[in-house]
Amino acid sequence: MHDRNGDRAAVAGWAARWPTDAADAPLFGREDDLGLVEAFVADVRRSAGAGPLLLSGEPGVGKSALLAAAGRTAEDAGVRVLHTTGMPYLAQPGYSALAQLLRPAAEGRAACAPGRALGVALGCHTGPAPEYDEVARAVVSLVADLARDRPVLLIVDDVQWLDGASATVLGQVARRLAGEAAGMLCAARTGGESFFDSTGLPAHDLAPLSDAASEALLVSRFPALALRVRRRLMAQAQGNPLALLELPVALTDSQRAAAETLPGRLPLSRRLQDAFASRVTALPAA
Ligand SMILES: Nc1ncnc2c1ncn2[C@@H]1O[C@H](COP(=O)(O)OP(=O)(O)O)[C@@H](O)[C@H]1O
Ligand SMILES: [Mg+2]
After folding, report:
1. What is the tens place of the pLDDT at every residue in 17-44?
2. Is there a contact between 183 and 177 (Cβ–Cβ < 8 Å)?
């Protein structure tokens, strides 16, 4: 088993980069949340045993954008950032998210040597399926080893979509990192089912943007929106940045300028439909 390295490489190559729009755009109205993740990164840097922190919130509220900001802050401060993300709708081989997170750092190290549990989990070589607990212990010791060079920040996005093996192991790792010069920053959809056990982990709920921040975002990205249209979009988006960015896209130029009345029900862009689709399909038919 664990010999599907080709699949893993493809998955890792696609997802290892930050989502580009999340990495470049300025964040509106997130001063407090940025302060929190920056303090977290500072703890990692000071080798203060930052442990885990879980960001939670609705689809589109800005979890990945905040993770990207934390990752940039950490890299700028000389922290080694390792990143992985769960992915929906993909039949993923076991440990694919863990491999994406650690394989680049583990390759060439003892942890990846033949006969080692972690090497099998990461697909460095084949062998009997290792126990979760053994893999979790090997991950903690690899991270501790890496952290002797410089502090390490593990970023795990969309934990609700991690493959089961990675979720189980990373849930255990999150609890065992205290005391290392390392931290683990995770993000999850509110209420998302997951193998990742977040019970008792420190969590921070990302609230919707304030009206002022929502308006600033709209004005900056869609300066041609008529005031009336802007207010209507803000009422509809309820502080969700993804909705604020996507609702205007589905309008015509004359609708944006309020030269034409808006329909009673605003059209939803594909991206917006996708973001909330899993919520809708999970609802009872009625
Ligand atoms: N505070 C913000 N200001 C401006 N744009 C934002 C903000 N938060 C998120 N975005 C943008 O909104 C979209 C959705 O954010 P994202 O981080 O992907 O949400 P989530 O990960 O919670 O589903 C992205 O395009 C992101 O760049
Ligand atoms: Mg996200």
Report:
1. 455 455 567 899 999 999 999 999 999 9
2. yes
Indicate the DSSP class of residue 249. G
Q: Report the chain's terminal Cα–Cα distance, integer Å.
A: 43
Report yes or no: 218 and 225 within 8 Å, Cβ to Cβ: yes
Count of CB atoms situated within 10 Å of the CB of 280: 8
In 3D, which of 179, 153, 157 has the Cα closest to residue 54? 157
- What is the rounded average pLDDT of the residues 46-53? 80
Query: Which residues place a Cβ less than 5 A from the ion ligand 2?
Result: 63-64
What is the model's pTM?
0.88
For 151, half-sphere exposure in the C-beta direction (CA atoms, 13 angstrom radius) is 27
Report the alpha-carbon distance of residue 260 to residue 253 in Å, rounded: 9
CA distance 156 to 82: 9
Contacts of 8 (CB under 8 A, 6+ apart): 93, 96, 99, 100, 103, 123
Q: Which of 15, 151, 24, 146 is nearest to 75 (CA)?
A: 151
18 lines ligand 1 (CB under 6 A): no
Cα 19 from chain centroid? 10
Nearest-angstrom CA–CA distance, 73 and 68: 9
For ligand 1, pick from 214, 217, 234, 242 the residue to mutate: most ligand atoms within 8 Å of CB: 242
